[in-house]
């Protein structure tokens, strides 16, 4: 299960990336260094992490007894205006992190993860800065749930999992290039109900480490007069189809196909945002299997197909967008869930026509399926 607080925090996190102030004026940023570069300076970090496991449901209390410790290596690129969206978000850093955790529990073992993230400044001075970091990626757990050998691990049921990271970081200069990093954050791992049991693991963490700054102060590139996107105020239509796989329950280890199709209209309202409204349909093959198991001989089975309407938002970072949807079922003969659903996702516009996306569909805070989507923008 994806705990409801994590999905809400993810929405809040991306909203903060869009709203938090950074460097207040371009002229101030330009005074920090005399020489601009087409590629911003690098920051390389090494951090230790100390954590505990949140027992967000009674079913995982037997695992929330240890204090995991972790280590992270990361590299960040300071944006400097080489793409227009850098200035719109006040020049965040773009990072890649490798994260190792030892859970000090033979049931959970260890985990390894790779994440990409954005690091946005609340406040920045020549020798210190306060940042908010938000990232996502893939985690690997060697000791996942196994009915024969590791049946007590009901918190992580598959080797591969999605991961979400949120963190507030304070960096203070120790020397011209070296900085001390202190932070507090949350790490979350879940497979989005692809395999069950899957309660997911939430790790509040304290972080301590060092950063090597290639160039602590940086200078932004000159802004071009025509930095406003040409499509602001324009309407568009997204047509797409998706597929995903989910396990019905712990006793049935088969993966069932979940399909969807959608037609979504949108309008770009400013540099950062698209507003959306649309229609979509779903066909979950696991529901058909569930009905066949419980139906009497000769009983007519209800239709498991569903249709919904949605409203949504896209927070834009160049060709990348963070997507949030709130949908309501208007055709739902077999009521296997609540009347509404939510979706969180990342979408990438490969060309002016073609896009791809990875979404997590959620019912009342509980992960339903990870959707792999491809579509066209008209």
Would you kindly provide a written description of the structure presented here, covering whatever features stand out?
The protein is mainly beta. The chain contains four helices and 16 strands. The protein has helices at 4-19, 26-30, 84-88, 285-294, and strands at residues 42-51, 69-78, 93-102, 110-125, 128-140, 160-173, 178-190, 201-213, 235-247, 255-268, 273-284, 306-317, 320-331, 340-349, 354-363, 366-377. The strands form two sheets. The protein has an eight-stranded antiparallel beta barrel with strand order 1-2-3-4-5-6-7-8. The protein has an eight-stranded antiparallel beta barrel with strand order 9-10-11-12-13-14-15-16. A hairpin with a 4-residue loop joins strand 10 (255-268) and strand 11.
The N- to C-terminal Cα distance equals 35 Å
Most strands sheet: 8 strands, antiparallel, barrel
Low-confidence segments, given as residue ranges, are 1-5, 23-36
Shape: flat
Radius of gyration: 23 Å
Secondary structural class: mainly beta
**Count of separate DSSP helical elements:** 4
Which strand-content bin applies to the residues? over 45%
Helix content: under 10%
Mean pLDDT over the full residue set = 86
Give the SSE string: HHEEHEEEEEEEEEHEEEEE
Number of strands: 16
Largest sheet strand order = 1-2-3-4-5-6-7-8
List the helices and strands and how they pair.
Blueprint (H helix, E strand, L loop, with lengths): L3 H16 L6 H5 L11 E10 L17 E10 L5 H5 L4 E10 L7 E16 L2 E13 L19 E14 L4 E13 L10 E13 L21 E13 L7 E14 L4 E12 H10 L11 E12 L2 E12 L8 E10 L4 E10 L2 E12 L1
Keywords:
flat, disordered N terminus, 10% helix, 8-stranded antiparallel beta barrel, 16 strands, mainly beta, single chain, 378 residues
């Amino acid at each position: 299960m994806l705990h409801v607080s994590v999905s809400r925090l993810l929405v809040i996190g991306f909203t903060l990336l869009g709203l938090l102030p950074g460097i207040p004026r371009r002229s101030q940023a330009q005074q920090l260094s005399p020489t601009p570069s087409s590629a911003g300076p690098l920051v390389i970090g090494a951090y230790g992490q100390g954590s505990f496991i949140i027992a967000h449901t009674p079913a995982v209390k037997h695992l929330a007894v240890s204090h995991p410790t972790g280590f992270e290596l990361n590299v960040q690129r300071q944006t400097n205006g080489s793409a227009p969206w850098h200035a719109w978000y006040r020049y965040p850093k773009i990072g890649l992190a490798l994260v190792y955790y030892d859970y000090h529990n033979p049931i959970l073992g260890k985990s390894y993860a790779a994440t990409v993230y954005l690091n946005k400044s609340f406040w920045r001075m020549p020798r210190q800065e306060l940042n908010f970091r938000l990232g996502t990626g893939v985690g690997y757990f060697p000791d996942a749930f196994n009915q024969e050998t590791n049946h007590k691990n009901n918190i992580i049921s598959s080797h591969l999992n999605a991961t979400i990271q949120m963190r507030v970081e304070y960096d203070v200069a120790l020397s011209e290039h070296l900085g001390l990093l202190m932070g507090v954050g949350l790490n979350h791992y879940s497979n989005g109900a692809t395999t069950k049991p899957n309660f997911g693991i939430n790790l509040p963490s304290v972080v301590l480490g060092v950063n090597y700054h290639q160039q602590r102060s940086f200078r932004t590139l000159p802004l071009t007069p025509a930095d406003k996107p040409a499509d602001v105020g324009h309407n568009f239509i997204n047509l797409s189809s998706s597929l995903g796989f989910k396990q019905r329950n712990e006793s049935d280890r088969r993966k069932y196909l979940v399909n969807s199709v959608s037609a979504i209209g949108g309008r770009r309202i400013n540099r950062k945002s698209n507003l959306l409204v649309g229609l979509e349909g779903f066909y979950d093959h696991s529901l058909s299997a569930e009905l066949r198991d419980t139906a009497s001989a000769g009983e007519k089975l209800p239709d498991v197909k569903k249709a919904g309407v949605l409203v949504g938002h896209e927070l834009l970072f160049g060709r990348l967008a963070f997507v949030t949807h709130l949908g309501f079922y208007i055709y739902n003969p077999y009521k296997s869930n609540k009347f509404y659903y939510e979706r969180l996702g990342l979408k990438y516009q490969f060309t002016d026509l073609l896009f791809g996306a990875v979404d997590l569909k959620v019912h009342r805070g509980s992960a339903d399926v990870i959707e792999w989507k491809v579509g066209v923008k008209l």
